[in-house]
Amino acid sequence: MEQKRLSALLPIGVFLVLYLGFGILFEYVLKTEDGFYGVQAIVVFLIALLVAVVQDRKHTFNEKVSIMAKGVADDNIILMCLVFLAAGAFSGAINAAGGADSTVNLFLTFLPGKVAVGGLFLIACFISLSMGSSCATIAALASFGVGISEVTGFSLPLCLGAVVGGAMFGDNLSMISDTTIAAVRTQGCEMKDKFRMNFWIVLPAAVLTFVIFILITPGGDSIGDIGDYNVWKVIPYLVVLVGAVAGVNVFVILIIGTVLALGVGIATGAFLWTDSFLVLFDGISAMYDITVISVVVSFIGALVKEAGGIAALIDLIHSRIRTRRGAQLGIGALVVGVDIATANNTIAIVMSGPIAKEISREFHIDPRRSASLLDIFASAMQGILPYGAQLLYAVGGAAAAGYAISSIQIIPYLFYPFLMAVSALVFIFVFGDREDRKPGTRTAPRA
Q1: Torsion sign, CA atoms 168, 171, 175, 176
Q2: Between residues 75 and 158, which one has the greater pLDDT?
Q3: Distance, CA of 221 to CA of 278 (rounded, Å)
């Protein structure tokens, strides 16, 4: 019988308390020079890992190492680490070649500065919807967001918040997103039906997010002269973006982009061919911290799961559901809780899906609705998780460009993930007791 222990979630609680607590202390109380960045995430994660190791008295140390090894051997973790390094190489090459500056200048030549950040959000929405991966979208656009910040003067966390928010739009809605696939498969509905219902729920959040970005960046009209751009230096970026939209594997397309950026940089005299290794190393080395954090997070998640923390969380939420509206809130709380524990929204949906389906049957909830709520709440939580892959990618992109920021600094600007969750809650409270029409008649009620 699978063990269930809420106390197994302690390491995650320790991380959140220390990371957020000291971050707030340094930033707002003591007002230290480094602020939030003074709390190095990897150190806090190692403390949380130590708690997880010490807390588990059932296994020997060697057995715990085996459990952690299985956790880091997950395909998603390995791919994420490879993409981190590939994105670092691409960022180092494209920045050294001057491609980032040229691309931003070209973008701002045709788009007014006051809508630059809103436009960045829409571009991220389009790319993520086309390719189905928030992480790949952020990997492709993070350095672009850095460039927009440098040229316009808008804060870096704001620009990266637009990138991450747009990335979560497609992560939630795309037909080829792993979260969408996991949601429809676990709930037993058609992908197109889930998309229709899901779209009308989150559309208000997307529109409002775009409006907010426009309203809070009025200074764009006062931007100085936009620099020149070299079309050749823009090509590597365009290849990466087009390849991403076309569905080319993100690791492969980043490698292709890196080779092109090196070629363009050498051909235009931006750097000597003998400096190629140094250029790549500068970008890759900036990703070391993020890569190690990803590995340590997988260690903690594996130990927490083995100790019964996730099973206990699922059982706790399931046991407190009483009404149809409460069942839908419970589905949301269930997947949010598991996502916090695993830092992976796809895994959270896969693990929560069977329980959510059982709840849906018991309270007569349409599978399209349960699939939509699973995906929305998982994506919303993942988008604001300070140790989630999405924010780590954003922080890594900034680091590759030479900027040291904390994921917590980006969170206040993650308007879309927050509004997506609000839209889902409004939908539940307004339409929570309404029966959904069957597919083939009319679309679902709009939030």
Answers
A1: positive
A2: 158
A3: 38
Amino acid at 328: Q
The CA–CA distances, whole Å, from 294 to 74, 76, 173, 189, 427 equal: 11, 10, 25, 33, 34
The residue to which tokens 């309270």 are assigned:
363
- Separation of CA 176 from chain center: 16
Instruction: From residue 302, give the alpha-carbon distance in Å to each of 72, 295, 352, 392, 419.
Output: 8, 11, 16, 19, 31
- Could you tell me the two tokens for 182? 């996991």
Residue in the block written with tokens 């340590």: 296
Sorted by sequence, the CB contacts under 8 Å of residue 404 that are 6+ apart come out as 37, 398
Distance between CA atoms of residues 237 and 245, nearest Å: 12
CB atoms within 10 A of CB 330: 22
Average pLDDT (120-132) is: 81
Question: CB–CB of 336/378 below 8 Å?
Answer: yes
Rounded to whole angstroms, how far apart are CA atoms 12 and 250? 30
Q: Which residue has the tokens 């594997």?
A: 249
Residue burial 288-316, b: 16+ Cβ < 10 Å; e: rest: ebbbbbbbbbbbbbbbbbbbbbbbbbbee
Alpha-helical (H) ranges within 25-177 are 41-55, 61-72, 75-97, 99-110, 116-131, 134-152, 156-173
- Segment 309-325, tens digit of pLDDT: 878 877 887 788 888 89
C-alpha span between 124 and 172 (Å, rounded) = 13
Q: Give CA–CA dist 170/2, Å, rounded.
A: 35
The verdict on pTM exceeding 0.85 is no
Residues comprising the chain, all counted: 447
CB–CB of 386/379 below 8 Å?
no
Contact 276/260 with Cβ under 8 angstroms?
no
Cβ atoms within 10 Å, residue 219: 12
The owner of tokens 């939908």 is: 427
Q: Which residues of 198-214 are buried (b: 16+ CB within 10 A; e: fewer)?
A: bbbbbebbbeebbebbb
Q: Which of 99, 107, 124 is nearest to 259 (CA)?
A: 99
> Do 312 and 6 touch, CB atoms closer than 8 A?
yes
Whole-angstrom distance, CA of residue 149 vs CA of residue 156: 5
Distance, in Å, from the CA atom of 329 to the CA atom of 336, rounded to the nearest integer, reads 11
What does pLDDT average to over the chain? 84
pLDDT above 50 (res 364)? yes
